[in-house]
Amino acid sequence: MTVTASPTKVTQTNQGNFLDTPQLASGVTRFWLIRHALVEQNARLSLYGTLDVPLCPDSLIAQRPMYEALAARLPKKANWLVSPLSRTRCTAEAIQDAGYGTAQLTVEPALIEQDLGAWQGMAHHELPHHLHLAPHPFWSVSASECPPNGESMIDVCARVGRGLDRLAEAYAGQDVVAVSHGGAIRAALAHALRIHAETALHFSIQNLSLTILERLEEGWRVVTVNELPGI
């Protein structure tokens, strides 16, 4: 006897959430995360973490085309956030001056860089003598290493994750341009992808690069990572 299976009705419930065109849909909670510009040369010789170090004046001039490309790439009428450190504010102002136009900058403490505590200001070559764990191959310290009076990258991921969820509610359905830091943007990726901080440190987040995250009803989505403007 031949048995014929009854046809099964398949219901597609995820229509409309695919990125099929270059144009991103409006009305989506979307974060445009930008790492600040290159800091001044002397500051790069040491661990600066949350120290308020200035930007490199020469790079501000030489990388003008990158600022112009970012100004053209970013959505108009977006909400702008910066961390409490001046290097993010100066980067945001440079992008706006390069063609975006003036927009209010709101300080968001959750987006600050990893606090390296007592190790801030220490020369890079001195750090290995103070570590309890082997450093990450792409970061100064292991994700689990907590500097004295500072925070581990695991702590940063928790802080940034809480902040992103809060901001996603506050700016629901809107675009948010946030000028932040390499560590904080990696933490945002860890939160969006639900991966360990140690894994997230494998992402390359270069100065002036753009990372785009979306908060949909189904969860967080990563649109682009480390996109370099004008390249």
TrEMBL record:
GO cellular component: cytoplasm
Pfam families linked to this entry: His_Phos_1 (PF00300)
Top-level taxon in the UniProt lineage: Bacteria
Signal peptide extent: none
GO molecular function list: phosphatase activity
InterPro entries: His_Pase_superF_clade-1, His_PPase_superfam, PGM_Phosphatase
Protein name per UniProt: Alpha-ribazole-5'-phosphate phosphatase
Designated gene of the protein: bluF
